[in-house]
Design goal:
By secondary structure, the protein is an alpha+beta fold. The protein has a single domain, classed as Thrombin, subunit H, CATH 2.40.10. 19% of the residues lie in helices and 35% in strands. The protein has seven helices and 16 strands. The protein has a seven-stranded antiparallel beta sheet. A six-stranded antiparallel barrel has the order 9-12-13-16-15-14. It has a three-stranded antiparallel beta sheet with strand order 5-11-10, with no helix packed on it. A hairpin with a 3-residue loop joins strand 15 and strand 16. This is Serine protease.
Amino acid sequence: MEKIELSSVISFIERSVIPIISLPIHEQRAGTIGTGSIFQLNDRYFLISASHIFDDFEKFSDLVGIPTANLNGVVYNFGECNFYRISDKNLREKYDIIIIELSAEFAEKVSVHYNILTERNLSYKVNFENELLVVGYPYNLSHDSANEKKIYADHFRLSTYLRIPIGTEGIEFDPKAHFLLNYKNISNEEPALLGLRGVSGSPIWSYDSATAGIWTPEKNLKIVGLALAVKTNEYIRGVYWKYAAELFKDIDTEIYNLFKGDSNSC
């Protein structure tokens, strides 16, 4: 990818990827617990991320929120929201996806600082010959300022490519649902020194430079999966987007059918 082209792509992704922040709880300082994206689907608003990052917070949604700007800002907490997760605990751990319905008022506040995505930004089709990009918010790049009552969070950029799933013992890996990605750092920080806790829930973007015509995010960039876990300096474990879409069967069948009717999706 050319440098100018990469800059445009990363700029769009960075505005579309959201740090999920916790206020202090259980002796843990405030900071990023994960990453996600917000979608407007049939006039409803949903945050989609990795389920495990909310294990300690489902009953404490007032302690979780989104900062008002990528690099620093007062945190808007989720307040009244609905959590949708797979009810079967074993399947929940396997697919590790959560959908949180947010109020329109909350989404309106957030939309000043971040892109609200739609079904046009999603795809079931994964071409592993395309470059795949992940932008997330590691916990180690976040901190709170008690004096300013703000949370600071910075992102980390990775370029990835398919890894043959060798040595998957000890991790939850279903070849039908999961894929492994090797990655290289396109940020300044070294991941071995940084650690990538907090990147879980990041959308995995496929970039297709061969699409004819003028570049647009809806046409050239598609979310094809979610990052569930990162083994530093080894791989990212992702789950295909279709498994997030399946959750909408129990939330809103019209939204689920919206995905099925989209040629870029199902």
